[in-house]
Amino acid sequence: MRYQISGKQIDIGDALQTHVKEELGEAVNKYAQRPTDAHVVFSKSGHEFVCEATVHLSTGLTASAKAHSTEIYAAFDGCNEKMQKQLRRYKRRLKDHHKDRAEPVEMLGASSYILASDSDSEAQEPDTLQPMIIAEMQTKIATLSVGEAVMQMELAGAPVLVFRNEGKDGLNVVYRREDGNIGWIDP
């Protein structure tokens, strides 16, 4: 498994990197087969350290966790516990479905945009109907079954997931509804 351990405007020592590789590697190997890579980023927010971890699995699924604490090792330990919980749930769901994916998930390239919010200019008429784009990023759209898409959305903690339905030819969307249920848009 490849590790990318970095700090945002803070120095990450060798001891912390070794600790992260040992602990995260042990947790991932316990619950997931064939992990491909892990990205761990440490940052500081006020007086607290923040640890964000993302683990990519060979099945195409991505698990991510975030924790914060006043000590950097405690922040990682909290993040590692959340990661273990997600991977344990994922493994349990795979056993429940009795489905082994024969080949890795196919990924398609797409663009992702962040649009400026106009909350302060609601009272006045906008100059143009074109939204202001703040950021443009590349993202991947996975080819999944509906059940796998729901699982991926829950693992990522995202409110919505766009995916390519492997049973049909087209893009689909799953999302968390206000009543707590999952919605599925199949155009």
From TrEMBL:
Keywords, sorted A to Z: Cytoplasm, Translation regulation
Stored InterPro entries: HPF/YfiA_ribosome-assoc, HPF_long/plastid, RHF-like, RHF/RaiA, Ribosom_S30AE_C, Ribosom_S30AE_C_sf
Sigma 54 modulation/S30EA ribosomal protein C-terminal domain sequence ranges: 130-183
Single GO BP term: negative regulation of translational elongation
Location(s) in or outside the cell: Cytoplasm
GO molecular function: ribosomal small subunit binding
Signal peptide start and end residues: none
One GO cellular component term noted in the UniProt record for this chain: cytosolic small ribosomal subunit
Entry similarity comment: Belongs to the HPF/YfiA ribosome-associated protein family. Long HPF subfamily.
Subunit structure: Interacts with 100S ribosomes. Associates exclusively with 100S ribosomes, which are dimers of 70S ribosomes.
Free-text function comment from the UniProt entry: Required for dimerization of active 70S ribosomes into 100S ribosomes in stationary phase; 100S ribosomes are translationally inactive and sometimes present during exponential growth.
NCBIfam families: yfiA
Protein name, entry field: Ribosome hibernation promoting factor
